[in-house]
Amino acid sequence: xxxxxxxxxxxxxxxxxxxxxxxxxxxxxxxxxxxxxxxxxxxxxxxxxxxxxxxxxxxxxxxxxxxxxxxxxxxxxxxxxxxxxxxxxxxxxxxxxxxxxxxxxxxxxxxxxxxxxxxxxxxxxxxxxxxxxxxxxxxxxxxxxxxxxxxxxxxxxxxxxxxxxxxxxxxxxxxxxxxxxxxxxxxxxxxxxxxxxxxxxxxxxxxxxxxxx
Length: 213
Fold this sequence. Notes:
By secondary structure, the chain is an alpha+beta fold.
């Protein structure tokens, strides 16, 4: 029997229990915060006395039980986030097993010679990714961020990956360059890195694809 299925069942059951508990906690908190209905005062048969302003009620302190309930709700929310992360990792294990998995990452080390607009990936002459970048994403890459650009499955054997980069080159000119690599898929996951860097001597950007060992 595949051991993955009992694990997914336990994760799903745990998620349902957390959602149900959060709903109960939210209902109890909402009911506890409702104001008490005002007391009805029967009209007096004597002569009406001059009205005096009612004193301002002092703020009611929050009972410790409510604070404890809020802490429990926050803990349950964190449990839900952790569960979602575990489910996401489990889904990737099911969809992309290590014996067929290939992942492509992008990193940049440029300052003067290239500003990326988009990148396109072709794996074995088939387009598998086409990504357009925002200014915020470009800034993140220039600060050292690494983007997972593609995750998929390939068979054992030889494969060809081609990457096309478009953007602004030296002196703000439109720039389009490509690079390619032939790699062999064996046992275990295969990780490839697209790296864009400055080539100071030629005053041009350099585009390479490297295999992670």
